[in-house]
């Protein structure tokens, strides 16, 4: 399970070692697809009127496009029989539409399938969002055993992982996993609730966590409430970089080869995640100039212009 285009179908294809299910950057799985063992490989299309039509495995990839043979709106679910050792013991894999695109008539069938599931593999193509948190919370209440899988690792910014890696190397990650991992607000609140944790001391976390991992060394900290964590030090410059959302989306669209709509959604989700994370740990407004030494609109001055402004500030203040 997971949101659309998270890589669910691609994951199943990799598990089976074959390109059986369609996958792409847009929603490609519009019906529930059951994959089970079969000596004779075939696929059965079940329609809402109770009909059954047999097709080849090659045709499975075209189920959503071959409207001359079947109407997607009439499909109830799809059964795929595969001669695979992975499925020979009786295991059945279920590929689902994106949880944010499941149509009403599938909800009951999906609920029944989850009730019978021994395990749920929840696939995330990026940082967890509120949609993910809500569904994971529901599955927790149902007592479902869930494993989370992160895909699209080629889109992970390596610099965002540096602090986590350093924390793990120093044996500190488990002390503040939600802070170092920049877990979204809904996930943190859910974890706090499940663990019965007291969140009254959250405001002390940034300073404690950063002091433990960095101490008095010189460094450049990106995010992680750095402006709050090091405010007690005199040799610090806090910089907030912002930019026009449309221009940021254009850069993401080109860099990751995604649609303009998806790029805009990534910008919105990223800003929301950072804003709520910052507020959760500091009680301060993310991006409010009151809490930074200098704020720069990079979309207006460019990266080189931003660097010159920061250098000018350092020279004028003599803070470093």
Helix content: 40-55%
Unreliable sequence segments: 186-199
The chain-level mean pLDDT equals 79
Shape category: elongated
Structural class: alpha/beta
User: How many angstroms separate the termini?
Assistant: 50 Å
What's the number of extended β-strand segments?
A: 9
Widest sheet, order of strands: 3-2-4-1-5
The helix count comes to 13
Question: Tell me about the biggest sheet?
Answer: 5 strands, mixed
SSE series: HEEEHEHEHEHEHHHHHEHHEH
Strand content: 5-15%
Radius of gyration: 24 Å
Q: What do you see in this structure?
A:
The chain has 13 helices and nine strands. It is 43% helix and 14% strand. Helix 5 links the parallel strand 6 (120-124) and strand 7. Residues 186-199 have low confidence and may be disordered. A five-stranded mixed beta sheet has the order 3-2-4-1-5, with helices on both faces. It has helices at 8-16, 57-60, 85-88, 104-116, 130-142, 158-169, 177-180, 185-195, 205-214, 226-229, 245-256, 260-282, 298-317, and strands at 32-37, 42-47, 52-55, 75-82, 93-95, 120-124, 146-150, 239-242, 294-297. The protein is an alpha/beta fold. It starts with 7 loop residues before the first helix and ends with a helix. Helix 5 runs parallel beside helix 8 (185-195) and helix 11 crosses helix 12 (260-282).
């Amino acid at each position: 399970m997971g949101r659309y285009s998270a890589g669910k179908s691609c994951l199943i294809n990799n598990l089976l070692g074959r390109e059986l299910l369609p996958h792409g950057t847009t929603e490609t799985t519009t019906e529930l697809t059951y994959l089970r063992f079969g000596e004779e490989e075939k696929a059965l299309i079940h329609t809402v009127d109770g009909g059954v039509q047999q097709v080849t495995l090659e045709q499975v990839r075209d189920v959503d496009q071959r409207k001359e043979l079947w109407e997607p709106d009439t499909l109830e679910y799809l059964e795929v029989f595969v001669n695979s050792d992975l499925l020979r013991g009786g295991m059945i894999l279920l590929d689902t539409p994106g949880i944010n695109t499941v149509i009403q008539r599938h909800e009951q069938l999906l609920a029944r399938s989850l009730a019978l599931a021994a395990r749920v593999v929840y696939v995330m193509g990026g940082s967890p969002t509120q949609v993910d948190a809500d569904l994971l919370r529901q599955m927790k209440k149902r007592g479902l055993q869930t494993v989370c899988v992160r895909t699209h690792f080629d889109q992970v910014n390596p610099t965002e992982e540096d602090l986590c890696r350093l924390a793990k190397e120093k044996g500190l990650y488990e002390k503040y996993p939600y802070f170092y991992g920049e877990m979204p607000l809904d996930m943190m609140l859910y974890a706090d609730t499940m663990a019965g944790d007291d969140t009254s001391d959250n405001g002390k976390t940034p300073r404690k966590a950063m002091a433990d991992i960095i101490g008095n060394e010189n460094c450049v900290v990106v995010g992680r409430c750095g402006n709050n964590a090091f405010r007690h030090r005199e040799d610090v410059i806090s910089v907030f970089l912002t930019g026009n959302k449309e221009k940021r989306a254009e850069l993401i669209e080109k860099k990751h080869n995604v649609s303009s709509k998806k790029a805009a959604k990534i910008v919105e989700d990223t800003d929301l995640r950072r804003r709520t994370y910052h507020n959760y740990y500091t009680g301060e407004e993310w991006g409010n100039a009151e809490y930074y030494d200098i704020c720069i609109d990079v979309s207006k001055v460019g990266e080189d212009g931003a660097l010159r402004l920061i250098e000018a500030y350092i020279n004028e203040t003599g803070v470093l």
